[in-house]
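Schema walkthrough. Field components (list of strings):
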Amino acid sequence: RITPGQVTVITIDDQNATWYNFTRFKDAEKGCHISGMSELKKYFQRFGYLSIPNNQNDNFTDVFDAQFESAVILYQQKFGLPVTGKLDSETISTIMSPRCGVSDTESTIHATNH
Amino acid sequence: FAYFYGRPRWDHGSSMTLTYAFSPTDMIDYISLSEIKTVFKRSFSRWASVIPVNFTEIDDYPSANIKIGFFKGDHGDGQPFDGVLGVLAHAFSPENGRFHLDEDETWAIDFEKVKSKTAIDLESVATHEIGHILGLAHSSIKEAVMYPSLKPRSKKVNLKLDDVEGVQALYGSNPNFKYSSLLAYENSYNKAINL
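Field assembly_structure (string):
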């Protein structure tokens, strides 16, 4: 609650963050078709969760298909998130967090985890 | 913890010393070189305290085992950077040694001095990438240094049990390292944050 006399300070950054904004995919699940979802699939492919499609002229579609659901589950497992298979808010928030550019899974096929 | 495919590691004999150098041309100018060197020295020493590996800075960039630099966009290694936030840095598995930081980030060593909402702690990223240089891949443990993401204006510089066990399985333990001190630290930290 802001009472009279309080001042709200808004800090505006002098830089424009160019990172993807994936918030519009929040709550998407298998079967959804949302314009631009192919960009999110490219993100998943970039970090090793999704392979490049074979029979679609090398383009990802905007459909939340079974393969993408598997990728989301793998991502949630890797990041210690609740495994829902959906793009819930926690998953979207994690996807949009700044991160290391090293792939999470592609290079660690025979990783030792515990 | 996890390793890269094939579990690569540096193999320079029993008493291993790895050299590192900063690019003479690809650095940032808003943090002094001496401050950057201090940050990296601390980051390297954290890993050196748990494994029998020493890290020594040298001036000769081409001959260093670990080559550190700040790069923008497509910088020729097939892994272009993407501007502010997103990908912050990347490093290559042993025994490649390339250690690249995204020049477009607002790198910070003191959040009191840097007010940007997108400021990224240089020491946290340095410590994480050294883990890759040594052969660790990304961990699923949120508290671990080797967890893949780092929020702006946050710090994560202390190695956790997961990081230590992972790197010690590759190189063995530093004779001066004591698990008890690490566990004592983690216990006091957990107590402090009320876990």
